[in-house]
Design goal:
This protein folds into two domains: 85 residues, Roll (Urease, subunit C, domain 1); 259 residues, TIM Barrel (Alpha-Beta Barrel), CATH 3.20.20. It has ten helices and 17 strands. It is an alpha/beta fold. The strands form three sheets. Strands 1, 2, 3, 4, 5, 15, 16 and 17 form an eight-stranded mixed sheet that branches. It has a seven-stranded parallel sheet with strand order 6-7-8-9-10-11-14. A two-stranded antiparallel sheet has the order 12-13. Helix 1 links the parallel strand 6 and strand 7. The chain binds zinc ion. Zinc ion binds next to loops.
Length: 390
């Protein structure tokens, strides 16, 4: 058979079938046509030698900001995806109902990679949110427009996002969370809550979260985090037990090695690894999805598990496992290739804490919908604002 693209001799890790083997992948018409141990017969119009590299499903970033140029956070999803191995970005509320139509037309519909939006409860989304918290005035919540937008884009908008914390919800406290809860129940979609410095506290907000809801920035090291005297809080364990998901969301200030280490030592790994990549965090300690995954390898997580938490697990969290997160014949051909460097590497968290590891992942090829993405353009060359507005 003739393929459009064949990947040869990769160390294939497929979390969908929980398997790892050396083999080939044949791609045609945007989908995976063959996935075989050993050598695939037939040739590709384009062939990639992946010998000595791991081959995984395209990464699924549960927290990556993609609304370039609208608000200070957004990155170009294709340019970054091409260099990091990300083929699905779950955008965590960069747009709200008042800015969503532009997000759909100019980003979601135009991107080679898949962009799955979560709608910010605030109509303005993350426009100038560093200066004016998007939910610190109840007037930013337009319940009628929120419901109409969710209705119009059923099946596209995968959840509601609320940044809960001093700088975002501020004086409105728990009110946005109660409103968000009701909206999610009405549309049967998950609520993603960013946790940060209180108010509200975890003790206040966790009880309103249900199975399938997502807490992001779970290992942040700020006041009021998941640990109490070095141990995972009872409320956090109770939330996990009823099915609330805990996501990394590394970001510019929202990941702490000591917190992650203490939680994992107690048997509390994350449910998903994600970057919270945005215009600032990509330039500071988050850097890239493979870099964040490498930090978890340094904390002792095995490679297969790190891949699962960066592909299938986030795909499931937003109901996208039918299109991404695993390698399946007939599925869209979203595939990533990584070099695994071995040596002595030092990784840094946003507070400057370091940990050493012996493995480092580097993306070499990214294929989205069967197309090898162009990695020649630097996603940071084109900074949309002269000074940071995050
Ligand atoms: Zn974020």
């Amino acid at each position: 058979m003739a393929y459009d693209l064949v990947l040869r001799n990769g160390d294939i890790i497929d979390p969908g079938e929980n398997r790892r083997f050396t083999g080939d992948i044949g791609i045609a018409n945007g989908t995976i046509q063959a996935l075989e141990a050993g050598t695939l017969s037939g040739t590709g119009a384009q062939e990639i030698d992946a010998a000595g590299h791991i081959v995984t499903p395209g990464l699924v970033d549960l927290h990556g900001h993609c609304y370039w140029g609208v608000g200070g956070t957004g990155l170009d999803p294709d340019l970054v995806g091409a260099r990091h191995g990300v083929t699905t970005w779950i955008d965590p509320g960069s747009s709200g109902a008042a800015t969503f139509p532009g997000f759909k037309r100019f980003i979601i519909d135009q991107s080679q990679v898949r962009v799955v939006p979560l709608l910010n409860l605030s109509a303005k989304g993350l426009v100038h949110c560093g200066e004016v918290g998007e939910l610190n005035d109840i007037g930013y919540i337009d319940s009628e427009l929120n419901a109409a937008t969710l209705e119009q884009h059923r099946g596209l908008i995968a959840g509601i996002k609320i940044r809960a914390g001093r700088s975002s919800t501020g004086k409105t406290g728990m009110i946005p969370l109660w409103i968000g809860r009701e909206l999610c129940d009405q549309f049967s979609i998950p609520l993603m809550v960013h946790i940060s410095m209180p108010a509200p506290t975890l003790q206040e907000l966790l009880p309103i979260l249900r199975a399938g809801d997502i807490v992001t920035h779970c290992f942040h090291g700020k006041t009021g985090g998941m640990l109490m005297r070095g141990k995972v809080r009872d409320e956090v364990w109770a939330a996990r037990e009823r099915g609330v998901l805990f996501d990394v969301g590394h970001g510019n200030s929202s990941f702490s090695f000591p917190v992650a280490e203490a939680a994992m030592a107690e048997g509390f790994p994350p449910d998903s690894i994600s970057t919270d990549l945005h215009q600032r965090s990509i330039r500071t300690s988050a850097k890239s999805f493979p870099a964040v995954m490498s930090k978890f390898l340094a904390l002792g997580m095995d490679l297969e598990n790190a891949v699962r938490l960066s592909t299938l697990a986030p795909a499931r969290a937003v109901g996208q496992e039918h299109v991404c997160g695993s390698l399946r014949v007939g599925a869209p051909a979203d595939v990533a290739v990584f070099r695994v460097d071995e040596g002595e590497f030092t990784f840094e968290d946003p507070q400057g804490e370091t940990r050493n590891g012996t493995l480092r992942l580097e993306n070499t090829h990214t294929i989205a919908g069967g197309v090898l993405l162009d990695r020649s353009r630097d996603p940071l060359a084109d900074d949309p604002f002269p000074v940071s507005t995050i």
